[in-house]
Amino acid sequence: MSETQAADIYDLAVIGGGVNGCGIARDAAGRGARVLLLEKGDLASGTSSASTKLIHGGLRYLEHHAFALVRESLIERERLWAIAPHIIHPMRFVLPWTKGLRPRWMLRLGLFLYDHIGGRRALPATEAIDLRRHAAGKALKPGFGPAYCYSDGWVDDARLVLLNARDAADLGADVRTRTAVVRLERVEGNWHIQTRTTQGFEQAFHARAVFNATGPAVLDLLDRAHRPTDRHMRLVRGSHIVVPRLFDHDHAYFFQLPDGRIFFAIPYERDFTLIGTTDRDHQGGLDHVVPSDEEIAYLCAAANRYFARPIAPADVLWSYAGVRPLVDDGSPAGGGDARLSTGH
Fold first, then answer.
1. CB 113 within 8 A of CB 102
2. Domain 90-154+233-327 maps to which CATH number in 3.40.50.10800, 3.30.9.10, 1.10.10.10, 2.60.40.10?
3. How much is the pTM?
């Protein structure tokens, strides 16, 4: 191989311009690697901009004994807040105790662990509150009393992706959007990557290593690389709704439901409330993912269990959904995926 040919080879090609892909590209470029980032659409155009917009440790995963996962996530929460305080800010969450669901001792124990296993330094600790006297109780139906208030973080999710990509480019990464990978093959010890832009222009790149950060399309990319796997993925759709503001304070809510699931109600853009999320198996395509009518009705009904002001699907101003890939272990969506949803 000539010196000119060697100079045309990237150390790492990252395929997928979501939060994982852009974060990996930034990290690798910061370590001196020559990095190529390829995204078939726009940055953060998929699941990375369709999240609940939280930087959190995953409180509910403690219930499934995923202590290492929660600890790692909590450490990353503090680190991300320190890196990007202009797009990440602390938020207090109110978790009411609900009769007939998880007992108070379980909630308190979980929150004690949540406060202590991740090296929390700057965020306020959990405190017990009485919703009959706390401002967060005014928006709820009568009958709620004991509750807990704990800390997590809010993030502008799409902006986080863009800033990672911008920093990666500043560190020397070659960032190419609207550039789809149509074929991958191993040639003389390197990866040959054939791409096509949305305008139909085709171009080949070469890299020593490839990172598959395509999220729910992970198996599709393996097919294009002729690398079959015996692993199966389950695609799970998480849907959210935005409604007119249901409360007038800055706290968010973490609510339990009888089916074992939880959902959040979060202040959103001053005049709105963001409610989500669901877990439903996704069978359709990935280019235009939207909530089903059933999911919208489910979230409205969930909110109506707690808030004094009822909402209906007609009150939904905007809805969105994202798809995440899980290792398929045969468990049903909506509850059995908790241990697998964010671990890699």
1. no
2. 3.30.9.10
3. 0.90
